[in-house]
């Protein structure tokens, strides 16, 4: 099977959550941003393997922060969206926008739905 080049739905949600949380966000902050903006609960068991996969694809980079007392001296792993990741988000955004174009009435836009 050839490697997948397009973003999956969860991958896109996580990248958008990272963008909203800001450069250097860590996994829990990304999860909180996704939950706050979408109401969707992405479990740690889903977010970290997805972030690992995105890093393997060269879309994000991670680094270890300084140890913190609130984590018992453990460091947090922070994530940064790379240029190829931003390009993938833009590409996916264009695809969704193009696909949804003209469907405003069917989607209930402007009717409070």
Layout of helices and strands:
Elements: H1 9-21, E1 25-26, H2 27-38, H3 44-56, E2 60-67, E3 75-81, H4 83-100, H5 104-107
Antiparallel strand pairs: 1-3, 2-3
Describe what you observe in this structure.
With 113 residues, the protein is an alpha+beta fold. The chain has a single domain, classed as Arc Repressor Mutant, subunit A. Strands 1-3-2 form a three-stranded antiparallel sheet. It has helices at 9-21, 27-38, 44-56, 83-100, 104-107; strands at residues 25-26, 60-67, 75-81. Strand 2 and strand 3 (75-81) form a beta hairpin. The N and C termini lie far apart (41 Å). Helix content is 53%, strand content 15%. It is globular. Helix 1 crosses helix 2. The longest helix is centred in the C-terminal third of the chain and has 18 residues, at 83-100.
CATH class wording = Mainly Alpha
Order of helices and strands: HEHHEEHH
Broad shape: globular
CATH topology: Arc Repressor Mutant, subunit A
Count of alpha/pi helices: 5
Q: Tell me the quaternary state.
A: single chain
Q: How large, in whole angstroms, is the Cα Rg?
A: 16 Å
Architecture, according to CATH? Orthogonal Bundle
The secondary-structure class comes to: alpha+beta
Unreliable segments of 5+ consecutive residues = none
Can you list the strand order of the major beta sheet? 1-3-2
Number of domains: 1
Please tell me the overall pLDDT: 88
Please estimate the helix content.
40-55%
- Sheet-strand content, in percent, reads 15-25%
CATH superfamily: Winged helix-like DNA-binding domain superfamily/Winged helix DNA-binding domain
Query: What's the number of extended β-strand segments?
Result: 3
């Amino acid at each position: 099977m050839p490697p997948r080049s397009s973003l999956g739905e969860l991958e896109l949600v996580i990248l958008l959550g990272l963008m909203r949380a800001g450069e250097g966000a860590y996994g829990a902050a990304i999860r909180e941003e996704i939950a706050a903006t979408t109401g969707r609960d992405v479990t740690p068991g889903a977010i970290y393997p997805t972030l690992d996969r995105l890093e393997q694809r060269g879309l994000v980079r991670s680094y270890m922060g300084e140890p913190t007392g609130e984590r018992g001296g453990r460091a947090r792993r922070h994530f940064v969206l790379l240029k190829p990741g931003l390009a993938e988000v833009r590409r996916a955004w264009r695809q969704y926008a193009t696909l949804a174009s003209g469907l405003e009435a069917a989607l209930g836009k402007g009717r409070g739905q």
